[in-house]
Specification:
heterodimer, A: alpha/beta, 4-stranded parallel β-sheet, 14 strands, B: mainly alpha, two-stranded antiparallel sheet, two-stranded antiparallel ribbon, 14 helices, 3% strand, globular
């Protein structure tokens, strides 16, 4: 070995000895909760900005626009401006984990808010709870957020659970269509199974029965064979618990086979009007007319809300703070509804905001009058009930748009 | 020992030293990101043995990582095996799976092989979901906070130093990566490595010099998959979570992109490829977050890299060496 190399090695060993000592000295943390100062609150979250589910990123963009509006017009909450830093996880839970850890450990966010996806939030839940970082208003309808509250007290969901949604369909059919025979097409994962389970629960003690249920894989190319089997079962009602692409296919295949079930139920509300319009092939597919679904937010394309002050505000906010985004996308309304609730919770947690005070606030929490939600729907938790939104309206697809009908449906998980 | 071997050893020792001290100079969180670089380095070392040295393309290495990751997770959760102790099992299970896949794959070449390996990458998530009772299905397996996972809740003591979770992950992943690197170097410098290269350069010539094509290809697949298994195991430990979506098709493609950036058929540039896989998506997000923009930035940078450095990072290093020799 020549001398230069020897010197380099010695230098490296010295650096190592110094460096390790420095690292050990640097790990102590003191002071109050991170992400909070007298005039700011930092929230973080993950969203699929790239990848196959990137259309869901609107949930984060809508929330961001609302916070910007709130900071500009009201100076934030309790004198603190809210920054919302969301990062891409490409809809891959293996990326949600490091990204969330980065938000917590490097960006030092006060709380994680509005992160999207079931598995993506399940993946970081034990970590966030161990670190006592609030996991606010998870953007997923899985039942686990409310059900496992005792084990993970820092985690709270938002939208009605898929189970609650299925239950509403079940109750509706039990009341309005006695003797109906239901065929179900469902996605073979927790999402589809929760909806199916809820439907069956709603049908208990009624004459309505699920006589056939066909699963499909997200990776499969189409659902033609499933629809053929469901038709062969002799059912007179079709429930589609699928993502937009497959729901559209289901309508098309059922129409091609000449199957005319009396009621069609569809959960693809999140993408609302656009996918329904495609499914109806510009009014050609009569099967789509009369489809039933649920809603808890104001749909920006629903003519009912054309002159609603909240929806006017929504359009103004979008124009100013998210000018390149599609205003008709209801997921932006979802993001704003969620952000509105977060701001409300942060306000109620008080001037001496800590992670613990926020958790306690959400433990027993009522936020009524969310302007972006349908009138009368409250965000509410109390005691063992940790399902924030449990009310919804039924809506029917008629003449190219959704029209809500009937009164509020409430679901109690416990 | 020859002069070049000595020089290689010295460079490697210096590299080890640098790797060892990095956590002292970066913050806690960076250490975790660099841990992922170590994980990808393991996978890329294995993939380069198969694709770079033996000339067999694989678009399915994410599947072998999944096998390793699931072996580790299932052993930890269902059988209470400590995380480090699961790594050898992950290596063996993935290695055997790779060798078995090697038998049919040995008959395929070029595009057909690419399609067959792509097939296993596509099928893996569905297969994992199918055996829900065994694999946890779509819900996945959570490792964080379990007693089998070292240091996730309380720091671990190692030769007198207290390491928190991120630093522990860093040292774990890089230890495996550097050991794997040396093992790969030992395999490739000898007889086996010559056989691999002979198969890559001309199968006819290789057969006529007495090399068994099937044996060599199966061996390459096995070794390469074993590396992927180790990487998958470390990936599961570092991420503390596995589910079918954690090993998507894009992971396999990213790995192939990684070895192209590092340079095929050389071990010198592998770290560059691993860094590219880990950090390029993050950097491209920093440029712009508007819809579609990060993907475009990623693509443009990749195209530019291939245009400017067709030999990858290894090619660049080789060129620099030539310059200094003059």
């Amino acid at each position: 070995m020549n001398r230069k190399l020897l010197l380099t090695s010695v230098a490296l060993v010295a650096a190592l000895a110094l460096g390790v000592t420095a690292a050990l000295a640097g790990t102590v943390r003191v002071g109050s909760d991170p992400g909070i100062t007298d005039n700011s609150i930092l929230l973080g979250g993950t969203a699929p900005l790239t990848g196959p589910a990137s259309q869901f990123a609107s949930v984060a963009r809508g929330a961001e626009a609302y916070f910007k509006y709130l900071n500009a017009t009201k100076g934030g909450v309790n004198g603190r401006k809210i920054s919302y830093k969301y990062a891409d996880d490409a809809y891959n839970p293996a990326q949600s984990v490091p990204v969330t850890r980065q938000l917590v450990e490097q960006d030092k966010v006060f709380a994680i808010f509005n992160s999207l996806g079931t598995a993506h939030n399940v993946a970081v839940r034990p970590y966030l709870n161990a670190m006592k970082v609030p996991q606010l208003f998870v953007a997923s309808g899985a039942t686990t957020w409310g059900r496992d509250y005792a084990q993970f007290p820092y985690t709270i969901g938002f939208q009605p659970s898929y189970q609650a949604e299925g239950w509403v369909y079940g109750k509706y059919l039990a009341r309005t269509a006695p003797g109906a025979k239901i065929a179900v097409l469902f996605q073979n994962d927790d999402y589809g199974k929760d909806l199916l389970g809820g439907l069956k629960r709603g049908l208990q003690r009624s004459k309505v029965k699920v006589i056939a249920a066909q699963p499909y894989e997200v990776t499969s190319p189409d659902v033609a064979s499933q629809i053929a089997k469901l038709k062969a079962s002799g059912a007179d009602t079709l429930a589609i618990f699928a993502t937009p692409t497959f729901a559209i296919q289901a309508y098309q295949f059922a129409n091609k086979l000449g199957w005319k079930p009396k009621h069609v139920i569809n959960n693809a509300v999140s993408s609302a009007s656009t996918s329904m319009q495609i499914a109806s092939s510009a009014g050609q597919n009569k099967l789509v007319n009369g489809t039933i679904s649920i809603q808890f937010l104001k749909d920006p394309t629903d003519p009912t809300w054309k002159n609603d002050p909240a929806m006017k505000l929504y359009r103004t906010i979008m124009k100013k703070y998210a000018p390149s985004a599609n205003v008709a996308d209801p997921l932006h309304v979802y993001g704003m509804a969620s952000a509105w609730t977060a701001a409300d919770a942060l306000k109620k947690a008080g001037k001496d905001l800590t992670r613990e005070s926020l958790r306690k606030t959400l433990d027993t929490f009522t936020a009524a009058g969310n302007p972006f939600m349908l009138p009368g729907i409250a965000v509410k938790t109390a005691g063992k009930d940790h399902y924030p939104v449990e009310q919804m309206l039924l809506q029917k697809w008629q003449n190219g748009s959704w029209n809500s009908f009937g009164g509020l449906w409430g679901y109690r998980a416990s | 020992m020859s002069r070049s071997t000595l020089k290689a050893l010295a460079v490697f020792a210096a590299l080890t030293g640098v790797v060892f001290v990095i956590p002292a100079f970066v913050n806690d969180f960076r250490a975790q990101q660099f841990a992922y670089v170590g994980v990808y380095l393991v996978a890329l070392t294995g993939l380069n043995i198969l694709t770079g040295y033996t000339g067999q393309i694989s678009l399915g290495h994410g599947a072998f990582m999944a096998i390793g990751g699931y072996t580790t997770s299932i052993l930890m959760i269902d059988h209470g095996v400590k995380d480090i102790a699961t790594i050898p099992f992950a290596i063996i299970v993935a290695g055997v799976a790779g060798a078995l896949f090697g038998f049919p794959a040995a008959r395929l070449a070029g595009l057909y092989l690419a399609l067959a390996t792509f097939g296993i990458a596509l099928a893996t998530p569905a297969v994992i979901k199918k055996f829900e009772g065994f694999t946890g299905g779509g819900t996945g397996v959570n490792l964080f906070g379990t007693p089998e996972l070292t240091a996730s809740l309380t720091p671990v003591k190692l030769v007198g130093f207290e390491l928190d979770f991120n630093n522990w992950l860093y040292y774990l992943c890089w230890t495996v990566a550097l050991v794997g690197y040396v093992v790969a170097w030992l395999i490739l410098r000898g007889r086996t490595g010559r056989a691999f290269r002979a198969v890559r350069d001309s199968e006819t010539a290789a057969v006529s010099s007495g090399i068994s094509l099937t044996r060599t290809k199966v061996l390459a697949f096995g070794i390469s998959a074993a590396y992927a298994g180790a990487a998958g195991s470390l990936f599961a430990i570092t991420t503390t979570f596995v589910n079918p979506d954690t090993f998507p098709v894009t992971l396999s493609i990213f790995l192939l992109v990684g070895i192209v950036v590092s340079g095929l058929g050389s071990l010198k540039g592998l770290i560059a490829g691993a860094i590219f896989i880990q950090f390029m998506p993050l950097w491209s997000q920093n440029v712009s977050k508007s819809p579609g923009a990060p993907a475009v930035v990623y693509g443009v940078v990749l195209i530019l890299l291939i245009l400017v450095l067709p030999g990858g990072a290894s090619g660049l290093i080789a060129r620099l060496q030539q310059l200094t020799r003059r």
